[in-house]
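Take a careful look at the sequence and tokenised backbone pasted below. I need to know what the token row says about the fold.
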Amino acid sequence: MSDSKNQELVLVVDFGAQYAQLIARRVRQAQVYSEIVPSSMPTAKMLEKSPKAIILSGGPSSVYEAGAPTLDSKIFEAGIPIFGICYGFQVMAAALGGVVTKTGKSEFGRTALTHNSNSKLLADLPKEFSVWMSHGDSVTTAPSGFTSTASTSDTEIVAFENSDAKFAGVQFHPEVLHSENGQEILRRWLIDVVGCKPTWNSENIVTSEVEKIKKLVGSGRVLCGLSGGVDSAVAAAIVQKAVGSQLTCVFVDHGLLREGEAEQVERDFVASTGVTLKVVDAKERFLSALAGVTDPETKRKIIGTEFIRVFETAAREISATEPIDFLVQGTLYPDVVESGGGDGAANIKSHHNVGGLPDDLQFKLIEPLRTLFKDEVRYAGLSLGLPEEIIWRQPFPGPGLAIRIVGEVTENRLRILRKADAIARNELRIANLDRIIWQCPVVLLADVRSVGVQGDGRTYGHPIVLRPVSSEDAMTADWSRIPYEVLEKISTRITNEVSEVNRVVLDVTSKPPGTIEWE
């Protein structure tokens, strides 16, 4: 369910790009609704969606290689404005009679671009600015009727456009933050050239979803599992606004959350929404199931299985008095894309959204966030008046602290990690860094002891690892350059206030090769 049917649509055609989702997000940041479709989708199906415009993504192929993904040339005859990026720029050039060549000169990373005075899209921008490149092939001849509007020291044609700029493209990646003026170039094309109306925003999304849920649910009853994260909180808040007391939320407290987060759900979320909440204290059950387990994947499976069983029991208790008709899931648009672009139900991880319920507890799904990216979910939550502590909560894995303890999960180890984690989060918040970094996992190396000196004696304490990372999509990430004075405060406080820890180390590994989580 989405407001998308009432919105102008921009299709992002995915040629296997690393950044296809990022392109779609940038379009939405210009307040225009976007959807991602595979390049293999038949042209007729694309046209059935009545797109206002089409953007062709990058991709890893070479347009002149046999079997390389391409587009039916009829798409360029349909009267729809089209913008090509990187590989999409080359596909567009080749389809319209231009020439793409392997020149022997590649460009990767930040590159200085110079534009001329012939461009509608680049006019009034600085004459030279940095853009993000990633290509080995180049457009060496622009299609007939197109003007080359920008170049670099190694590539003569890095942007072109036709006379009205409704057919245009760039060799660089305007969607990447490293490209200066990238968002402005996309905005100009979408709003100024194509004439898209900037009407897509979080308030409209919430209003539309509330009306649709009212009609769908009628007098039925709705169940929602709260995890403590922003997705389930915003999904529940939207449904609560639509149907009020017909919604019951279940919060399974598995004892693996960070300090204060269980209380945040039980107190702050209920206060801000008025939702009916059933809290299941399952801490002992989860600890018992995890006893003696050190393998990360086994931990994940145990937690997922136990969560489903606990939720199942709670659902039976709630539906004993009156049947439950609907189940709320916090499915986001990236989940839909990664499971096949929306052609069927999303395959969501069981610890993230409730899956694996038995046949006699099957419900109709309500997925109010199905068309949204994470940043849009946050803004929707703010418009609903949810507490900022919940809205701006850093991403946190479903298995919780269990996979941030390298070793067996015990109550004492959870206590140690919670305390260290709370100190790190507090100092990052004081330094105004908590919304700048993507997240900062704090990891306890529970099976490692290092020698230290505290006071006049030796200690054999655990090391704590800080893993601050910056990312936009979690597919790739770089370690965050936190100021030394902030790191010093975190380290000093942890070693002073958590007696079992005598060493704090910083993980400076990017992803790839290292994942964000240690387990």
Summary: The radius of gyration is 26 Å.
